[in-house]
TrEMBL record:
UniProt entry keywords in alphabetical sequence: Heme, Iron, Metal-binding, Monooxygenase, Oxidoreductase
Family, per entry: Belongs to the cytochrome P450 family.
A Pfam short name: p450
Record bears the keyword Heme: yes
Residue ranges of the TM segments: none
SUPFAM superfamilies from the UniProt entry: Cytochrome P450
Protein name: Cytochrome P450
InterPro entries assigned: Cyt_P450, Cyt_P450_CS, Cyt_P450_sf
GO molecular function: heme binding; iron ion binding; monooxygenase activity; oxidoreductase activity, acting on paired donors, with incorporation or reduction of molecular oxygen
Keyword Metal-binding found: yes
Length: 40
């Protein structure tokens, strides 16, 4: 997802990147827990 550069850069780009990292963290932790429950 492009955020632009210079004067026309997106003011919320850092927030969007942080939200994506949080989402990836939650997805990976919940899927790993689900995997262990299936093979228990």
């Amino acid at each position: 997802m492009p955020f632009g550069n210079g004067v026309h850069s997106c003011p919320g780009s850092e927030l969007a990147k942080l939200e994506m990292l949080i989402l990836l963290h939650h997805l990976t932790t919940s899927f790993s827990n689900y995997f262990y429950l299936l093979h228990a």
